[in-house]
Amino acid sequence: MKLGVNVDHVATIRQARGVRFPDPVFAASLAELGGAEGIVVHLREDRRHIQERDVRVLRDTVQTRLNLEMAADEETVALAARIKPDLVTLVPERREELTTEGGLNLFSMQDKFKRTIDFFHEKEITVALFLDPDVKQIEVAHALSADIVEIHTGRYANTRVDSKARGVELNQIVESAQLISQSKMGVSAGHGLDYTNVTQIAKISEIAELNIGHSIIARAVLVGIEAAVREMKHRIDHSRMGLSSGTTPSAHRSGSPA
Asked: For residue 8, with 0-12 CB atoms within 10 Å meaning exposed, 13-18 middle and 19 or more buried, which class applies?
């Protein structure tokens, strides 16, 4: 299982003072040294953290894979086409939110998403859609020719470990991952994952990549970015041990809590 590290909050610290440091570009290099297989940044409309300069420089310096999260607005789509990240992940975006609060609603603007996906495919850029674990949304994603679906794990992450709700949310993620895989799309997941709750998600064999930011950067304040990434990689790899290809643990199918 691959790990994509989101370095947005390194830029959040920088922007709080309006200075040039800490630089998310340096953070990305350290994350790769720590074992990250991808770097993730979200270029928001309000530019609250990541700036256009960051994306341009990251395109030249990232040695693994650059994943640009973005809304499907004309300006950002045009910018992404010029910079050509390896992957764009289309996400919902509202100015008043602290962080992305849920998956896309593909039903509301299917024509727009289809045009955007087709445009990026013409530019030979892979497209992921950030979706809640919802069968109907996933079916639309397949119809729109998305390459990857990233499952929003926020509801799972925000439930209590010992609650029935945690098992329900986990089961929905398992079922969604299986459907995405059966639909011949790539499967990734992210949002709200930390060093504790990541273990059950990492056991879902259909998921090929986890994208994690806040918890890694928070840990990095104490131990450094390389060490924080290595620790997360260790948690993921340890959880993954013993899984055979195409097999999902029975505990997930039953909805048993972690």
From this structure: buried
**Catalytic choice (9, 32, 49, 69):** 69
Asked if residue 20 lies in contact with residue 12, where contact means CB atoms within 8 angstroms, the answer is no
Residues in the chain: 258
Nearest to 107 by CA among 76, 141, 148, 154: 141
Give the active site residue among 49, 152, 191, 252: 191
Is 61 within 8 Å of 41 (Cβ atoms)?
no
Give catalytic status of residue 191 as yes or no.
yes
Q: What is the DSSP string of 157-188?
A: HTS-TTSHHHHHHHHHHHHHHHHHHHTT-EEE
Q: Is 48 helix (H, G, I), strand (E, B) or coil?
A: coil
Domain ranges for the chain: 2-253
Q: Which candidate in 42, 49, 152, 252 is catalytic?
A: 42
Whether the bond between 24 and the residue before it is cis, its omega within 30 degrees of 0, is no
pTM above 0.85, yes or no: yes
pLDDT digits (tens, 9 = 90+) for 31-88: 999 999 999 999 998 999 999 999 999 999 999 999 999 999 999 999 999 999 999 9
Query: How would you class 243 by CB atoms within 10 Å of its CB: exposed for 0-12, middle for 13-18, buried for 19 or more?
Result: middle
| Rounded Cα–Cα distance for residues 250 and 244 (Å) | 13
What is the topology classification, in CATH, of domain 2-253?
TIM Barrel (3.20.20)
Distance CA 31, CA 52 (A): 20
Q: How many CB atoms within 10 Å of residue 31?
A: 31
**Angle separating helix axes 225-240 and 214-223, nearest 10 degrees:** 130
